[in-house]
Predict the 3D structure of the following.
Amino acid sequence: MKTFRFGPMILAVLIVLSIVLMPLSIERALIPSGTVKKAASSLDPHIFQGMLLQQKMLEDKSYLPIYGSSELLRLNRYHPTNYFKVHPEGFTPFLIGRGGMYSLVHTLNLATTGKALNKKKIVIILSPEWFTKQGLQKVHFDPNFSKEQTYYLMFHHTVNPKLREKIARRLLQFSFIRSDHNLATLLRNAAYPGSVSKPTLALATAQGYLTYKVLTLHDYLSAYRIKPGYKKSQRQKPDPALADKSWAQLKADAKKSTASATDTNRFHILTSLYNQHLRGKIASFKGYRHTESYNQSPEYGDLQLLLDLLKAKHVKALFVSVPFNGKWYDYAGVSKARRDVAYRNIAHEVKSNGFQLADFSRFDSKPYFIQDTMHISPMGWVYIDQAIEQFYKKN
Amino acid sequence: MKEITADFKDKVYSILAEACESDEVKENPDVRIFDEGLLDSFGTISLVVAIEEQLGIEVPISEFNREEWATPNMIVQKLADRQ
Amino acid sequence: MTSFIPYASFRFFVLIGVLLLPVILIGLRGRRWQAYNNFLACLMLVLIFGSKPLQLVSLLVFLVWQLTLIRGYLAIRQKHNSAPIFYLMIALSVLPLFLVKLSMDVSALSFLGFLGISYVSFRSIEMLMNIRDGAIKTVTLWRVFRFIAFFPTISSGPIDRYKRFEKDEEHVPSGAEYRTLLYQGLNKIFIGFLYKYIIGYLVYKYWLGSPLLASNSVQSIWLYMYGYSMYLFFDFAGYSQFAIGVSYLLGIKSPENFNLPFLSRNMKDFWNRWHMSLSFWFRDFIYMRFVYTAVKKKWLKDRYLIGDIGITINFLVMGFWHGFLLQYIIYGIYHAIAFITCDRWERFNKKHHLIPKDNKWVNALAILVTFHVICFSFLIFSGRLNFLW
């Protein structure tokens, strides 16, 4: 008589299932201490795509998260990460952002932080060039969209139903999201309650939940291999000499260094960048954005979603309004009057929702706040550092 | 089923020995000729052609599978069935 | 519609787990519910190919085409046995596969293909050959359909044989027999997970994916060669275990595909251990058919030369079957040369007794040499050497 050993097979299935279905709280707890510290200035996109490290970071009072986009990768010695290292004010900046991370991406980031977000202090850097007629496009959203976060939003009710409905409706406007069958079904049910039949919903929930748990497992595992999301050349070391300088001195120093790197052309764009990409074909950029306007943009709606979320969670947020490079935009065919519309709208929206705004739009037509067509310069960072410090101390 | 004569048996064995290029098949009629490497696909063809020419028994090669035609004895039996 | 590529996703395993449940429960009672099996055969085709409607249509047209050829040829064959008609039938049966293989280079034809067209063609050609030999005298359409479109093995084999399949279908296993089949089948599926999704995955990710192998230096290509060979084996052997395991659950003992190929003592031995169902198919239906015809009709005096030509044709066709690309053709020629060399040497050694056969050290050396000859062939196959030509 043959003996059958079905036991080991059943055990294997159980082990795999228990690993995959491990609760989020256990996965979060299993992340080794020290990982958050390593992640804080890594700018590894896995962190923004995931949730576990962001949640763990928010549980720790010593971190001040800064949400933004590609400007965060310019890690020069005046960047908040470097400056507050040599000049500690009781917090470590935790950077969340890369190119294309518009308000909607951050809404998802923040909506999936669970309870830890309540009454936290955070900083959000807004870029005026997001607020175009088209707003967030697939090219930027697709690589930054997190399925894991969206599933979380569908399976955990940490956001109030009305807002959840609005976020789901907005997400469904993107065809690449609609093409993910299970996720789209869940979103449709959240956006238009009762619109999805029970069996369809049940199937999508079951399949989606498995996908979601595999994604969270990936999220957990990626905590073990955090890699820098920036290029080596983008990062300078912290400079201890900055520690004891006054704001005025810092501004003067940073202005000088920005000027020496950008003064070779009338737009005050980094010399190396300008020579490599623009000088030869500068004529082709004349008026190339002349149709652009900022009076109407889906981005204002996306920003409102973000503001609604922060209000509901009683978050103390500092918004930073960054200027355009005025000289460059004049040349590109976008008049000051049109740019002012963006500044005004952003300021009005942020303030009328009761949030603090550090408005640097006054640097629009002055050189040195921006070091190329859109990224913050060393001098720009000093002004932002000062605003962050004031904000952190006051609240 | 036809009776297998000693003469028929000897004939098959010698055809087989020639195809295998070895007399081992005569000494051990239960040796598994494919497993032992005595006969390969090429030898199989020689065998099938020789059987056809010398015994007048036609065996389609698709019928000649290695499980049912595994030993000299089995081959004798199979051929006797087809006679 | 969601796609269900066989054994490619977790979803697929859950799906067949659910759909096979009735089969298993009925099987354990020593019964078979043929109507459900027919339903399952159709449903699985729709699920596997349904995400691309064009593929599904191609598949259905193709299946009707093959079934018509088989049924039609059987009717003709019963009246008279004519060689030209037989060759015509084979040509018509191969035609779609040929067009699809060609379409990889001719974009105008690219709408034709579907997953697993080769394997369905192999099964169909095998049936035509057997009908010609008189080995298959009657068929039922349902069974031919279940055979050539057998879903567990439809995408990449193993290639079963009709008579063997028929035998399994006609014998309904008793409860105890089914229990054994279930156990063996599940065991195979688990080995498949180990091979494909653990070992194969790790080799792919950390060995082949290692930045150390990116340069075109001799060392990195050498290391890539071993890695690729291991990956090819574990990925495909793992897949085969899934396919065979699922067949077992359906009461069909699909043939094995691999038998420790890296322990082969020579090239002949290797082709009896590597992708066996394919290599046996080629052996039986290309090499043996050719050599048999050539010997019988006395095309050449030297029989060994006929054998060598047969081997060359065999491996060249196999090369072209992989695709009309230079790397596959070189792979075929390389294997033909290796095989013929091995064959000649064996015959020479048999006569002159230069090296004893049953010596431990000789065996170990033979395995090592054969292993490297094989790995090098896979290196050609992988396309990693394409920068050379």
Remarks:
- Chains A and B do not touch (no CB pair under 8 Å).
- The longest strand of chain A covers residues 121-126.
- The beta strands of chain A are 63-67, 92-96, 121-126, 316-321, 356-359.
- The first helix of chain A runs from residue 7 to 20.
